[in-house]
Amino acid sequence: MTTLSAEHLSLSYGTNRIIEDIDLDIPEGKISIIIGSNGCGKSTILRSLARLLMPQEGTIYLDGKAIALQSSKEVARKLAILPQAPEAPEDITVKELCHYGRHPHKGLFSRKTLEDEAIVDRALSATKMTEFADRTLDALSGGQRQRAWISMALVQETDLLLLDEPTTYLDLAHQIEVLELLRDLNQTYGRTIVMVLHDLNQAAQYADHLISIVKGKIYKEGPPGTVFTKEMIKDVFRLECCIIENPVDQTPLCIPIGLSQNL
């Protein structure tokens, strides 16, 4: 199982410090979800974990080795990231998109092999996208399109899957469709998943490990039952709320009351 962690991590855009001296240890084989208000640095952390943003200070470790010292192909064999708004060539089919995920495992002029085809077919089956394999991305619904991108990430055959707000721009039914797919990938295939989510109740429902961020620092992390409190909601999101038990799965459920007076 591939491991991912960070020590004394500080991140900046230019002179603007976003994240200040945090430590992270992503639980193996679990779903970790990063939450926090807009602009707190959630996506910045995810980008740095995928080596898309180099730290101002500190070190990110992938399999115990500094990620900055590993080649791009080496990282791509261990870790796949799905950004917020991925772009693909015009008129590309789902199956063609998936084959891009095989690039980290191939030489410069390598052709598709029977093994590549089998891996793509397995990924399409896992995401329930087999019947859409020959459709172009622009002919798909929002939820189907997101499943196509997740299929491509699966084809990389990495233990780690990072997703930046995978439910953004989707209606509620498609949000649940994507989250249920990710939970199934975690439980059935043992993938370690790290994602950023905006919806607090979905985060509490689908996370094994919650990481709450405020003002560039980790406020609290751990199981949803210990992290998801009205004190955390007030301090991180500046909201007064009640926390009740979800009657379906007993996860914590946030009922907003109004803005906190301590703004």
TrEMBL record:
Pfam families attached to this UniProt entry: ABC_tran (PF00005)
Membrane-crossing residue ranges in chain numbering: none
Gene3D superfamilies with a match to the protein in the record: P-loop containing nucleotide triphosphate hydrolases (3.40.50.300)
GO biological process: iron ion transport
Keyword flag tRNA-binding: no
Stretches assigned to the ABC transporter domain: 4-240
Record-given protein name: Iron-dicitrate transporter ATP-binding subunit
Organism: Peribacillus simplex
